[in-house]
Amino acid sequence: MILFSSFSLRDELTQAISDLGFETPTPIQQKVIPTLLSDPKDIIGLAQTGTGKTAAFGLPLLHHVDIAQKHVQCLVLSPTRELCMQIQEELTKYGAYMRGLRITAVYGGVPIGGQIRELKTHPQVVVATPGRLIDLLERKAISLDNVKYVTLDEADEMLNMGFREDIDLILKNTPSRDYTWLFSATMSNEVRGIAKRFMKDWQEFSVAAANTTNENIDHQYYVAQHHNRFETLRRLLDFTPGIYGVIFTRTKQDAQEVSEKLMKMGYHVSPLHGDMDQKMRSKVMERFKSRQLQCIVATDVAARGIDVNDITHVINYELPDDPEVYTHRSGRTARAGKSGICMSIVSPKQISNIRQIERLVKQKFHKSDIPDGAEVVRKRLFFYMEQIATAQPRADFAKLYRDSMHEQFADVDKDELIRKLIWLQLRDTIDAYQDADDLNAGYEQKERGAGRGNRYSRIFINLGEKDGLNTQKLIQFITESVDIDSNVIERVTVRDLSSFFNVPGDAAEYIIEHLSSKKFKGRKVRLEEADQGRGPGGGGGGGYKGGGKSQSGGARYSGDVRAYGKREGHSGGGGGYKGKKKY
Ligand code: AMP
């Protein structure tokens, strides 16, 4: 039996693993650790989560760290913030006895300032999500010049989430990289592609049980508050420029509305539902098959007629009630031996439904982060680069004007010309995503702490203590009446006949609209947005502005195109976002 003690790890590590109660190494650890300790060459480890892969690369990584050197030597890339935090925690446990060792995790969705400060404490190991790492590189808050070891964890997942270009960029910015360790649950051509581009004479290690169930579909879910669902859909579409997909809604009305909103924003989509006659539906299918449409927005019943093999993505705008229906939907992709991605947008309350479906399809879902503005812009930048590079103008195109073109650009440097071309394509997206919100539910709290308080709307409601309500009961009534999470509601003030509460600006209109149609103990509920500048203020909550229309949030949720300026091509970019990113 192999024991950890036979590995000749540094004593501090052996001590820490013993404290943790690890006795025997797991199969992937047995295979990988000896190689990485004695001859830390490039490797590919095929292993899933739960196989002990973090220790398989983490222990050798920490073994090789030179604590005396106060620069980043080891970089671990991970697809999501959650995994990033987990890896940091795990590595910190292993390194508990290594005095002077610093391990920093950097990931999106939290203010960047704290991470910049942490990086100034000179960590030797950095665990990062690709997007945030590039942000930090752009701000010169981190240097990868001395990184010798790079680990790509869950490489297949990073690729499925669309981070290929980001990974390439990061690896190109590690000039001292001697060792690249790639871990992945599955081996695809894309994973092999990274190895071919960035690794030398790599050795492969795999443990059984990888990839046992269905095979080709990657199930991802994105957690967003209900009122951010549409924004999330747009962002996923913008982040997936080559998408050829089906977006599923629960109702015909939703299919129609979502599709119309997207069309107005310039996306090439069409609805497909039972209220359309057969002729219309056939026409939509024709356009979809000939790729004039990038997506169709369909109900389950109507989608039965879709017989297309190359669908890259299925997006569940809403999860179906019946988990069986999920398998029908996701089965629209990954047909004929191809691979595909099924993305589901869920509210925090629906995470339990995901668990139920996981059991049915016998496959683990990946919780993915909704990309931020900078990630979307970067994604589209690479997309246009690729489009320009692979464009094949017809032979007779602009024959007549060739001389004029040449004359016009004779003095323009080639690089400058490329920049101009891409800038023209991208500037609307850049504008739209300038101030992009973090749409991932569960992270709003942290952002509030970062002083973004004025982005909240104060809402008046005509119910109070006389109606038998207190704070808790009011919150309960609201969350049971509309699909929002209780942590969205803040600063509740219950008075005799009325109450006030705060919600994020972009949720205000949604809440007002959906609650106003409800009744409480037979009384018709009335809501209005309160004006925060006037009125009782403090614990009170402001006079009425009247009209019940939200200002900041209203435009956003209703998808008012004017709020977002011009659109580029099919994308539409994001809109109504806040932040401060410069590109
Ligand atoms: P991972 O696959 O890296 O996510 O690891 C799964 C879990 O197994 C983590 O909680 C580790 O702390 C734990 N673990 C890793 N290696 C061992 C080991 N050799 N013996 C017992 N537990 C382990």
Structure description:
It contains 22 helices and 21 strands. The protein is of the alpha/beta class and 583 residues long. It folds into 4 domains: 4-206, P-loop containing nucleotide triphosphate hydrolases (Rossmann fold); 217-371, 3-Layer(aba) Sandwich (Rossmann fold); 375-433, no CATH class; 444-564, 2-Layer Sandwich (Alpha-Beta Plaits), CATH 3.30.70. Strands 3-4-2-5-6-1-7 form a 7-stranded parallel β-sheet, sandwiched between helices. The radius of gyration is 26 Å and the shape is globular. The model is unreliable at 445-454 and 533-583 (pLDDT under 50). The structure holds adenosine monophosphate. The site of adenosine monophosphate (AMP) has 12 residues, from helix 3.
**Count of spatially separate domains:** 4
* Proportion of strand residues: 15-25%
Structural class by SSE content: alpha/beta
DSSP helix fraction: 25-40%
CATH topology name of the largest domain:
Rossmann fold
Shape: globular
What molecules are bound to this protein? adenosine monophosphate
Extract low-pLDDT stretches. 445-454, 533-583
Number of strands: 21
User: Main β-sheet: number of strands, strand sense, barrel status?
Assistant: 7 strands, parallel
Q: What is the averaged pLDDT score?
A: 85
Rg to the nearest angstrom? 26 Å
Architecture per CATH nomenclature, i.e. the level-2 architecture of the largest domain: 3-Layer(aba) Sandwich
